[in-house]
Amino acid sequence: MRVVFVSSESTPFVKTGGLGEVVGSLAKCNKEINNEINVIIPAYKSIKDRINPERTIRSKVFFESNWREFDIHQVCEGGINFFLIDCANYFDRDYIYSPPEKDVWDNPLRFGFFSLASLQTIVEFNLSPEIIHIHDWHTSLLPLYKNLYYPSLKTSATVLTIHNIAYQGVFDSSFLPLLNLPWDIYKPYDGIEFYGRLNFLKAGIIFSDAVTTVSPAHSEEIKSDSGFGLEGVIRQKKYFFGILNGIDTDYWNPEKDQHLIKNYRFRNYKAGKRKNKEEIKRIFGIDTPIIRPLVVFIGRLTYQKGLDLVVPVIEELIIEGFDFIFLGSGEEHYQDKLMAIIRKYPRNVSARIEYDERIAHLAYAGADIFLMPSIYEPCGLAQMIAMRYGAVPVVRRTGGLADTVRDFFEHHHSGNGFSFRSSTSQELMLSLLKAMSIYYQNFFNRSNRWDIIVSNCMSADYSWNRSIREYMKVYSIAKMLKK
Ligand code: ADP
Fold first, then answer.
1. Which of 165, 289, 302, 444 has the most neighbouring CB atoms within 10 Å?
2. What letter would DSSP give residue 56?
C-alpha cells in the first residue's frame, strides 16, 4: 500500500517524546512489510544543520492571506523517504513547539501551514498515496484542507492517530481566515467549534476517514469520561479503533545497545544490570550500597505522569530502602519539589532536568524498578522499553499501562509487574513495597520470583509485528470508503 505519514515529529530527525518515536518506528515497520512509505515533517532549525538533501524543490501555498514560498528537502534515511518542509518564518526557531514555560502565539499558523504544505508536497512529488496518515492535533487540519483545496487527492483516504487527546490545539476563532478556513465549518455539530474556540483535533476526528488511538483500553476511556471534552465526538465516529503502540526492538535492545556499559540478555541479566546500575548511580551521584532497589522515572515532569502521587511519599520510601533517579523536564513546580527532596537526601535521590537519550538508555538498563504512576496514559512507551531492559514496572492501571502491565501472580508465575488503581500516594507506596519484598527475597536467594518477573518482562513481544496488522486493517477500511 502507498502510505504517507504527516507528523510534527519523527525519529531519527526529531523526537520530544512518544509521538516522534512511534511515527519513526511505525514508518520503519511499514517499510518492512513492503508498504511504500513516505514521511513529511517540518524542517526545524535543529534538523536543517544535519541534513544532506538528495533533492530540494521550491513550492508555494496561499496562506495567511499571502503566497508563502517554501523549500521541500527530500532525504532518504533507513530506506525511507523523508520530505522536510522548510519555511524559515515558521520553523527557523530554537524550539519545536514552544520555549520552556511559554506559549507561542502563532502555533496554529505554524502547524496549519505545515498541513497545507504537506498536501502540496504530496502533489509536487506525485506521491499519490492511498493513505495519508496524520498524527495528533498539529496535522489535524489536513483532511479539511484536502477536501477544500485538493480535489486531485480525492481518492486518498485520511487516517488520524490520536497520541494524546489532552493536547487538542484549541485557539481563538479569529485565526480562521488566516488559516484559509470558511466560517461555515465553525459550528459545534459536525464542525470545528469547541466551546467558543477553534479545535484542530476535533477537525481531524470529524474529517478523517478513520481515527485510531494508541491502546485498546484508552480507546474505551476516551469514549466514556476521559476524552477531554471530545467524548461525544469520538463516540459518533464510526471508524474508531484502539491499536497498541509497539517499540523499535532493534533500537531498544539490551543485547546490542551501544549506550550501555555492559550488554546483557535474560541469561546474564543480573551481572549486566549491575554494571549499568553502578554506572548510572555514579552519573547521578547516588552513593548507596548496590543492593538497594533503584527506582527510575523517565518522562515529562507533568501532571499526566503522576508526579503528584510520587513526591509526597519519596521520603518515606527512601527510609524504607529505595533510591530514586528522575530524568525529565517539564513543569517548574515539580522540579522545585524534587530539588527540595534531593537537598535533604542527596545520596538517595537525584534528578536530571533535561532530555538525554544516552542517559535514558543507561537508566533503563540500570533500573531495578521503573515507576510510571500516570494519571492517564494513552499508551506509554517507557514501560515497554523498561521491561525489555529487565526493569520491573510499577504503574497506575490506566490506558496503555493497563494493556501492557499485568500484575504478578505468584501461584501462576504470571505477570510482569505491579499496578495500582486509585490515584493515591498510599497505593503507589504499597505497590512499591510489594515489589521490594520480592526483590529482596531474590537478592538473598530465598526465592526466584523476581527472576520470573524479569523473565516475563524481557521475553514479551513489544514489537510492531502485532499492531501493524491492525493498522493494515484500518488502512483497508479507509481505502474502501474512498471507492
Ligand atoms: P509521552 O507521553 O511523553 O509520549 P511515552 O512513554 O509514550 O511518553 O514516550 C516517552 C519517550 O520519550 C520514551 O522513549 C522515553 O524514553 C523518552 N523520554 C522521555 N523523557 C526523556 C528524557 N528526559 N530523556 C530521554 N528520553 C526521554
1. 165
2. E
Q: Per-residue DSSP letters for 305-320? A: GTHHHHGGGHHHHHHH
Quick: pLDDT tens for 277-335. Answer: 999 999 999 999 999 999 999 999 999 999 999 999 999 999 999 999 999 999 999 99
Cβ density class 217-233: b for 16+ within 10 Å, e for less? bbbebbbeebbeebbeb
15: CB partners within 8 A, 6+ apart = 9, 21, 24
Is the pLDDT reported for residue 392 higher than 80?
yes
What are 23-44's pLDDT values in tens digits? Answer: 999 999 999 999 999 999 999 9
Work out whether strand 170-171 and strand 197-199 pair parallel, antiparallel, or are unpaired. Answer: antiparallel
Indicate if ligand 1 lies below 6 Å from the C-beta of 306. no
Asked whether 467 and 243 are in contact (CB, 8 A), the reply is yes
Alpha helices in 49-97 (DSSP H): 88-91
* Residues composing the chain: 483
Give yes or no for a contact between 136 and 164, defined as CB atoms under 8 angstroms apart: yes
Question: Could you give the residue ranges of the DSSP H alpha helices within 357-443?
Answer: 357-366, 382-388, 399-404, 425-443
- Is residue 357 in contact with ligand 1, taking CB distance under 6 Å? yes
Could you tell me if the CB of 167 is within 6 A of ligand 1? no
Cα 374 to middle of ligand 1, angstroms: 13
Whether pTM exceeds 0.85? yes
Pocket residue to mutate for ligand 1, from 97, 259, 355, most atoms within 8 A of Cβ: 355
Cα of 355 vs centre of ligand 1, distance in Å, is: 8
